[in-house]
Each structure stands twice: as C-alpha cells, then as structure tokens.
Fold this sequence. Notes:
A hairpin with a 2-residue loop joins strand 8 and strand 9 (156-158). The strands form three sheets. This protein has a five-stranded parallel β-sheet, sandwiched between helices. It has a four-stranded antiparallel β-sheet with strand order 6-7-8-9, with helices on one face. Strands 10-12-11 form a three-stranded antiparallel β-sheet. It is built from eight helices and twelve strands. Helix 6 packs across helix 8 (197-210). The chain folds into two domains: 5-122, Rossmann fold, CATH 3.40.50; 136-228, Winged helix-like DNA-binding domain superfamily/Winged helix DNA-binding domain (Arc Repressor Mutant, subunit A, Orthogonal Bundle). It is 39% helix and 21% strand. It is an alpha/beta fold.
Amino acid sequence: MNSERILLVEDERDIQELLKFHLEHEGYAVTAVGTGQDALQALSADSPDLILLDLMLPDISGTDICRRLKATPETSDIPIIMLTAKDSEADIIAGLEMGAIDYVTKPFSPRVLVARIHTALRRPDPDTTDTDVAPLIHIGPLTIDAHRHKVEIKGKEVSLTCTEFRILQILAANPGYAYSREHIVNHIHGESYVVTKRIVDVQMVNLRKKLGRFGDWIETVRGIGYRFKEV
Length: 231
C-alpha cells in the first residue's frame, strides 16, 4: 500500500468524492478541498507529495495557484497534475510549461488517473541526470549545467522550463544522434506518460525560439524525431 499524501483541489463535489474514494482505496492519504484559498491554507499547514489541481476553481484559478507554487522554493518541487475540461493542445502545453508534470482532461477514468499518479510519484527528480548524460555540457558558446539547472549562451542565461531543459540536455549530450519523439517523452516523463507528437513538436518550436540564432542546432529528422547538430 502507498503512504504518500495527496492534496486534491476539486470544486465539483461528486468528482471530489469519487477521486478521494479511489485514491484512499489505493492507500494514499488524501486531503480534499474545493477552493484555491483552501488549497493554499492546506499547503501552509502541511506539504503533500503530490497535488491534483482542478483549473476551474470558484476563487483563485488553478493556473494562478500552479504559478505561485512553482515560484515559491518551499513548494516548487511538489509535482502537480492538472485536472480540467480544457482539452486543446494550447491549454495542455500552457499547463506543462507552467510547471505541471501531467495534464488530465475531463471526463477521465479514475483508474487511469491513479496510474498517472503512480508514474508521477516514482518519476526521477528532474534536476538529476542519467549516468550517460554529463552534468556539465559545453558546445561552442552553449553551456548546460545540470547541477545549477542553468543554460547559458555566451555567458547569458537562457530561461527554460524544466521540460525544455531536459529536452536540450538529452539532445546535446549526444550530438548527431536522432531521438524519436517517443524516446524524448519516455526519458522525461516515463513510459506511462501519454502525449501527442504535436505537443512535442510545439515544445521544440518554443525551445528553438529561446535559443535564438542557435535554435537551428536542433534539427528535425524526417520520419524519426530530432537531433542536436554536430558542431
């Protein structure tokens, strides 16, 4: 049985009770609240292992809560799974870029959500690196520092989201090696993570923009995925 604590923020009482039942059946300790303000009060009293966060709350929006938590050192490392009826790719990408590790659209299967929670709680720390990825990568004017979670070009810091940082780190670790979209997603989120190819492509577009004129170092490999240019 599990012992992790989950903060469930959901204003629809039927959904809240259904999720609480399934999560407690799995052994999770669940604190359920229905407003953003109650969620912030619960977080000030205790730090959960994971937050299930509805975006459409009656007072503070879920996006504002997520942004606030990720900007606060004491809560920035708590994994957040967003729950919402908004299912456009733009909404999903916005949620992931804001710092959520997963995005589940309504209606959903409680069993599927529980599986996503299991994956989220066992995923590796995003600030850690794999044994085959150097903690410090230098390529021309580009520096990727895993210990400080920092990317610089010619000494100027480039602000990347956690996902963008991991994508760049994976590609730059092996210049010339082509990675499939599936490999990139599995490497970052785990094999149980479900994501469309389009979302990966949009994240690549955003990453290239942030790298400026060096963005073309990330090459599209037709029919496969992406690779970092050998420079």
